[in-house]
């Protein structure tokens, strides 16, 4: 192939693409190559942005959202090394209180041995989780780099990388489960430490003690209290690690779903729309109910005038930018069919337009937008030449 001719063809195609226009009041450009509203006051023209979502090729200058993992790092794990202070040995005074002190000292030593074992396990889990997170982000970055420059839909190499990333994320989930077990064990140790603290204080009130008993009790009481504080910190830091990592894994699960959609399409999207939007559900989808769109400007207009219209990237960019400014936003998806051609033709076009709208909805869900945020409806329009799907901000 003559690459110089190929580059000329690409540049020529880009120059033929129409620019999109937008107004600040609409929040968003209409990705149709034309202003759908009559009022063009204050409109600006953005060259190199997404062109009309019809049978034409997408603009070469289209900006894409950063890929999953771009600029992202996993949450910081705790760094404390929980080492017990140790237990000071003492002499048997031969009294009842002296024997009680020795018994409490042995209990404290066993408890501190457990702390040492759990601390060792915690450090191992932290190291493994850090390694899995590093592997996950490295793999995802490789996929995003390939998608950024363009690749074939369903590239098997990227599918293999995706499976590797999913395995790393699964390993992180296993680590969280192990830390949950550790937290349960530490919680039981906290109960034991509270019992030791109360028993040590109570020993001061037992009669028949000599001065040496109380001296040893005072040392033991200090060491028990230090152990109580150490266990509380161990439990708190472990719980915080679990909370942050659980949220991180849930977020990346959603991002992986969007990455899978990107691999399927052979183009880069970005982070899941779920992670841009608030988690509060919207009013729920409305199937078939006519929506009043009079005077409303669509955020996106997709013209299905040929097979396999490449609308996904521009759709993701538009919805993503809206959610950045209004995280609780909901949308109306309208299937628009031409009203010309007689009742039979109108009915056929309406059915096809409805299927296209359902396809667009599936794409939005794959990108992470909760389906409860989208109401879907249909209508006919004399101005429509081909079947279209309009997306409105509710």
Shape: elongated
- H/E series: HEEHHHEHEHEE
* Helix percent band: 40-55%
Low-confidence stretches: 1-71, 278-288
The helix-and-strand class reads alpha+beta
Query: How many helices?
Result: 6
Number of strands: 6
Taking the sheet with the most strands, its summary is: 4 strands, mixed
Average pLDDT works out at 77
Our estimate of the beta-strand percent is 5-15%
Number of domains: 2
What Rg, in angstroms, do the CA atoms define?
Answer: 32 Å
The termini sit apart by: 49 Å
Strand order of the largest sheet: 3-6-4-5
Care to describe what's here?
- The chain is an alpha+beta fold.
- The protein folds into two domains: 3-65 and 273-393, no CATH class; 96-265, no CATH class.
- The chain is 53% helix and 8% strand.
- It contains six helices and six strands; from the N terminus they run H-E-E-H-H-H-E-H-E-H-E-E.
- The protein has helices at residues 3-16, 96-149, 156-203, 211-265, 312-325, 342-366, and strands at 20-22, 44-46, 300-303, 331-338, 374-381, 388-393.
- It has a four-stranded mixed beta sheet, covered by helices on one side.
- Helix 2 packs antiparallel against helix 3 (156-203) and helix 2 runs parallel beside helix 4 (211-265).
- The chain is elongated.
Quick summary:
With 394 residues, the protein is α+β, with helices and mostly antiparallel strands.
List descriptors:
394 residues; alpha+beta; four-stranded mixed sheet; two-stranded antiparallel sheet; 6 helices; elongated; disordered N terminus
Write the layout of secondary structure elements.
Blueprint: H1 3-16, E1 20-22, E2 44-46, H2 96-149, H3 156-203, H4 211-265, E3 300-303, H5 312-325, E4 331-338, H6 342-366, E5 374-381, E6 388-393
Parallel strand pairs: 4-5
Antiparallel strand pairs: 1-2, 3-6, 4-6
Helix pairs in contact: 2-3, 2-4, 3-4
